[in-house]
Amino acid sequence: MSATIIFDLDGTLVDSLADIASAANRMLRDVGQEPLPQETIKQFVGNGLPKLVERVVRHCALTPERHAELTQRTLDHYNAGASNKTTPYPGVPEALNQLRQMGCILGVCTNKPEIPARHVLEALGLAQHFDAVLGGDTLNTRKPDPAHLNASFQALTSAGPRLFVGDSEVDAETAQRAQVPFLLFTEGYRKSPIADIPHTASYGDSSRLPDLVVGILQAQRPESH
Questions:
Q1: Which of 5, 142, 157, 203 has the CA that lies 20 to 30 A from 167?
Q2: Local structure of residue 140 (DSSP, 8 states)
Q3: Please, which residues bridge with residue 134 across strands?
Q4: What letter would DSSP give residue 10?
Q5: Distance (Å) of CA 75 to CA 12, 26, 52, 107, 115
Q6: CA torsion sign, 61 to 63 to 64 to 66?
């Protein structure tokens, strides 16, 4: 029972918060600022690197006109250590392998820039599962614009049911706007209670993902007569 499944990356497949926070704090040290707690930076994750830096700039009362410079500094630091502390969530490699064995076609749609996204997937041994990777700078738009997700599906030469898997309010909005079922990973970087995030199904253990996919596909099947 196969489907075309697009995954978010940060907070869904991998826990990358430590490396993201390290890059942001290295940028802050560059400009003479004290580092921020990792939990504070976690609240800024989800809409891509430029938005994260914008939130850091506002939080630290830095000059907004420096946004482009500080974004580039943060990206440079992140590219230098994008996989130093990043790890797949437990059960992710096995779940991806099982989905592929089921015949599913897999891709990634992330607001992380494409080059570090591909680096992380390669470094963690996950890249071979995905036939397309679209980052936050691949197009002129990014999630929650559904065009980002739709382009990710279109990059995969497959028919059949479409599913999106993510961890955040941004991902849920993207799925709603693209009108595709949404599977919510509850242990990522969401900021709202699970009940407040629209989703088709939720899971906190990635080993459950293949069975959830089967259940959604079975529910979508027209009844036989």
A1: 157
A2: S
A3: 109
A4: B
A5: 21, 10, 11, 23, 10
A6: negative
Of 112, 19, 29, 18, nearest in space to 73 by CA? 29
Query: pLDDT tens for residues 120-153?
Result: 999 999 999 999 999 999 999 999 999 999 999 9
- The tokens of 198 are what? 């629209």
Q: Is 137 a catalytic residue?
A: no
Mind giving me the DSSP string for 53-94?
HHHHHHHTT--GGGHHHHHHHHHHHHHTSTTSS-EEPTTHHH
Q: Model-level pTM?
A: 0.93
Q: pLDDT of 1-60, one tens digit each?
A: 689 999 999 999 999 999 999 999 999 999 999 999 999 999 999 888 999 999 999 999
CA dist 201 and 151 (Å) reads 23
Catalytic residue among 8, 15, 19, 171: 8
Residues of the chain with CATH 1.10.150.240: 17-79
Query: Which CATH superfamily does the domain covering 4-15+87-220 fall into?
Result: HAD superfamily/HAD-like (3.40.50.1000)
Q: Which of 120, 22, 150 is nearest to 74 (CA)?
A: 22
